[in-house]
Design brief:
It is a single chain. The protein is mainly beta. It is built from no helices and eleven strands. Strands 2, 4, 5, 6, 9, 10 and 11 form a seven-stranded mixed β-sheet that branches. The radius of gyration is 13 Å and the shape is globular.
Amino acid sequence: QVQLQESGGGSVQSGGSLKLSCAASGDTRCMAWFRQAPGKEREGVAAIDKTDTTTYTESVKGRFTISRNYPNNTLYLQMNSLKPEDTAMYYCAATPGWGPTLEPRIYAYWGQGTQVTVSS
C-alpha cells in the first residue's frame, strides 16, 4: 500500500515561487503532480520515473521542475514564475507501473492535495 502526503502549498503573487513536496511510502516507480482548478478537469502537470526521465505539460515547461529524492522517497515540484492560471489544488500521484506519464488513469495512489493560489 502506497501512502502520499503533500506539503508546501500556499499563496503567492504572480511571478513568485513555491516548492511542493510529497512524502511517499511503498512502491512508487513513477510519480507525478496533477492539479485541478474549480470547475475544471484534473490536469497532469509533471511526471518522473525511476530513471529520472521527466515529462511536463506544455504550459509549465521552463517554469516548473519535478524531481525526487530516493533515500527519503520524496517527490518535489519547484514552481517558478507562477501565474494566476496556476491556481489549483495540486495532487501527488504514484504508480508501480512504468512512466513517466500524465495520464491520470495510470495512477493508483493519490495524496489529499495542497492548495496553490497565485494572485495577480
